[in-house]
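Record format v2
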Amino acid sequence: MNDFVGYESRNGVGIITINNPPVNALGQGVRAGLVSCLEAGLADDSVNSLVLIGGGRTFPAGADITEFGKPLKAPDLRAVIVAYENSSKLVVAAIHGHALGGGLEIAFGCDYRIGDAKCNVGLPEVTLGILPGAGGTQRLPRLIDPSAALDLILSGAFVAAPKALKLGILDKVAETDLLEAAIEYAGELISSGAPRRRIRDMEINADAKIFDEARATAKKRARGFEAPLKCIQAVENAATMSFDDGLREERVLFEELVSSDQSKGQRYMFFAEREVAKIPDIPRDTPLRDISSVGIIGAGTMGGGIAMNFANAGIPVVFVETTQEALDRGLGIIKDNYAATVSRGRLTQDAMDSRMALFSGSLDFSALSDVDMVIEAVFENMALKKEIFQKLDKVCKPGAILATNTSTLDIDEIAAETGRPEDVIGMHFFSPANVMRLLEIVRAEKTGKDIVATVMKLSKKIRKVSAVVGVCDGFVGNRMLHGYMDQAMSLLEEGALPQQIDKALFDWGWAMGPFAVMDLAGNDVSWLIRQEQAPDRDRNLPYPHTIADQLCEQGRFGQKASKGWYLYSEGSRKPEIDPDVDALVLKVSAGKGITRRDISDQEIVQRCMYALANVGADLLDEGIALRAGDIDVIYNAGYGFPRYRGGPMLYADMVGLDNMLASINQFREDFGPLWRPSKYLEKLVAEGKTFSGT
Ligand code: 3HC
Ligand code: NAI
């Protein structure tokens, strides 16, 4: 018994309660308390069975992740589980909230498991780049169907009580108060002479082919990740080895994973995703505004996608457009999108109908007089946006949030058009806005704290991963991408071809290479921006990159035109190499007098990645991004950055900021003024620090 785990007895049952808020993580104190309370229960002659339960909001949600990578302090979780498994008195685990990872593994050390109706169980270790390392890979496939066990371990999914009961992970679901039900259950088990149940002694019969199939799938779906393959290996061992040998091998595989860079990256992302929701000067209890209705101006590509997020969350949307045709077209596209989801069996027709019923439209701004929030998504034109915000200022009720989805324009300038700049904020969605998880919440100079807090809360409701950023051209994600894309373009002119650059970055882990991305987004989008911004833009290019412009002049806008950097067959998204593009690249190099050279994949990755992180350093310096972790969350959620490498800033830390700085200085000598080391990078190197503080 200690501060973390308590023992008491009631009705002949010993109750062991874990109290380590917020999630009862199984840190050293909890593990020690679990052992001493078990001993107390075994020594207590007034009880003949035990119940293990979590205090507060949950059963243990796993090992304490902050302890990984540090020297282990006894007792080890595996020893705790073995102690429960070998207990001379029957033990019932009583689960509420979440029983995850090591939490579920300790429940596997108990004889029986009862859960309340709302509990969830799961083994999410794979999402942290590790495997269930306290017997989970050996006990779960003995307890339930090995194929289902493999699925659970590989997906890391949370399983709700009814399914957990059906699978056999739970033996019973409590209808009443969980503790009372668990005490009663333990009493019944004893009085009915129910057998002790050690999962380690259960038979396992797995068809060998499930492992080969799982490996083939994991190589495709989790390309580059090490943990899934080791999870499969561990479960296969359960089927082919004795329990003790399987357990020993599980530990070997766990140790390999937990000390890997991949797991370091994935654990860092777990904490970064929680940190990103904390804004230092905005207290957690900031009063929020109620958002029960939303107006969207512009039912185009972005407006339509944004609106779907709100309808999916049950929030009604009023569109304002310039013409009935534009309105009808926008609603038609939304309808087609939902219909496609229905036809794939992922949405019922009823649900689609009720979502469609949440949309209304108007050609008149007065339709926005009563909404709680407006999001403007019209053409990217400052004069037009200013005019719209002047109108909104007149029409919208006091307290309404006025948001813009601009991707490049100065939101302070837009806010200044209103008499209420504190109510104006940027909500930078990514295309397609109904699919992409990322939302950059752009805090302008005068944006009210309650507005930022309200939009952050709302972003969770519409299931977005959000990060608060400051105002600048491109905000965080796209501004960094400019640096990365500039390198891709330079490499092209110096000697590489689009397919080589794309392959090098894809093999490194990006979901897509830069040229395939441009074809997907539409080459015309950045072409228009380049044309608009040409006079103001000086990114110190040694020479203007012209290949992208020349492609657009030929109408090669990307996938939508069936040709761009690549060719696309009718109805296919698969890029095919186009000799005409290769010829154009060679011609441009020759025209500029560049002697093309062989460029290694390593140089491609280094130059693109360092350019990305170097701009990230500027953003941290300018306070546009609050933390390196926020940037990494943005790149994970919105840009297809491989999670097992953390994000671009953690990657730079892992390379070593001194190494990165030395390379950038060398690149500056070799390639000219496009390379300029960030002052912040230089400062961190001088101070021996890292971006992430790790
Ligand atoms: N270790 C350390 N801290 C943890 C933790 C853990 N396992 N799980 C959550 N926390 C912390 C979070 O960082 C957060 O801290 P903060 O308030 O300082 O930011 C706090 O607990 C609350 O967490 P959430 O914000 O995530 O709370 P939610 O209510 O949104 O979600 C949850 C609760 C579903 C339990 C979620 O926290 C979760 O998924 N936790 C991690 C589960 C997990 O991965 N478990 C496996 C661990 S590895 C393991 O067990 C290895 C074993 O096999 C040997
Ligand atoms: P779009 O051209 O598809 O849609 C714009 C819509 O606004 C059109 O339907 C048009 O009829 C309507 N509109 C124009 N003036 C209007 C007015 N005065 N009143 C009401 N409606 C009006 O443009 P898209 O791509 O949806 O872009 C919208 C905004 O979103 C822009 O600011 C853009 O920078 C930003 N954005 C675009 C992304 C993209 O990938 N397309 C990504 C992120 C932001």
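Residues 297-303, 320-322, 326, 377-380, 384, 388, 405-407, 429-431, 525 surround NAI (ligand 2) (CB under 6 Å).
The two ends are 34 Å apart (CA to CA).
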